[in-house]
Amino acid sequence: xSAMIRHDWQIQEIEALFALPFNDLLFQxxxxxxxxxxxxxVQVSTLLSIKTGAxxxxxxxxxxxxxxRTDVDKERLMAVEKVLAExxxxxxxxxxxxxxxxxxxxxxxxxxxxVIEMIKGVKELxxxxxxxxxxLSPQQAQVLQQAGLDYYNHNLDTSPEFYGKIITTxxxxxxxxxxxxxxxxxxxxxxxxxxxxxxxxxxxxGLLAQxxxxxxxxxxxxxxxxxxxxxxxxxxxDDMDPFEFVRTIAIARILMPQSFVRxxxxxxxxxxxxxxxxxxxxxNSIFYGERLLTTANPETNDDLALFERLGLVPMAHDDYSDxxxxxxxxxxxxEQQEPVRYYEVR
Length: 346
Fold this sequence. Notes:
Elements: H1 11-18, H2 22-36, E1 41-51, H3 80-92, E2 97-102, H4 112-124, E3 128-132, H5 138-147, E4 151-153, H6 160-163, H7 172-184, E5 188-190, E6 193-195, H8 201-212, E7 220-225, H9 242-255, E8 260-263, H10 272-280, E9 285-287, E10 291-292, E11 295-296, H11 300-310, E12 313-314, H12 322-336
Parallel strand pairs: 1-2, 1-9, 1-12, 2-3, 3-4, 4-5, 6-7, 7-8, 8-9
Antiparallel strand pairs: 10-11
């Protein structure tokens, strides 16, 4: 089947995909996946919380919100040296992208010099860089791009219709505005959502329609299964049907043929068989490491063992030849020796 890039998906079309027999849907998704990617290669990222807890937002799924009493400890912004040590360890364990997340509504000017140092230092290690820091102004997006940030993550979470039942401190339009600011600055977009929050199938279709109908598809689309954390309003929700989760992965693949579809939060509670179905449905990216921000994640050795059983291989970060890559690192090292100034990033 053709993997034509579209930006005009209707909710009814997506609901029709959800209604297909399971095998037919996976067959379609697998065809699209093979037209655009090596079906046995998986992009591997590591996620680190660089500032944890005390977030002023009231996202009902999030243990880092200051509105709820959870076991998450409040932590200040990590020292740059510690972040870079974590990035080096991630690379040694096979990660090609290092993602850094801060529990902010939006970054403050006082934080930006440290964030910039982190970006530059991780780039020196030869890793792709990604950050999620909350909402961004156009100016902040430009500064991050100039520092060398490759990806910016900002999830839409759910459909516009269901959004008000999850968050009241930030609008859907705010999220779309940040994605546009990131795109206008020339960075790649990482945007997805969370399922299993009590939403309907139509809401899942609505989320996927919002992502697929952006002017340019996100390069990375994380699909998170709700991790229920004691103390949050969603701690007691019923578990999502695992086959519905696989369907969501498959439809994300069909709607966004050239995007990396990431099997993200919730993997710790997934069986190997369920994860294998997700890879068959078109997922070709994961986070690995022991934690995702504040929630548990399968250990690296478990992931590598699963990869071996399934015949999967981590995707290499080979955007540059060795010679060009070394030149980029050398230039970055030279720049790193100069003082970092907020609005004079080269």
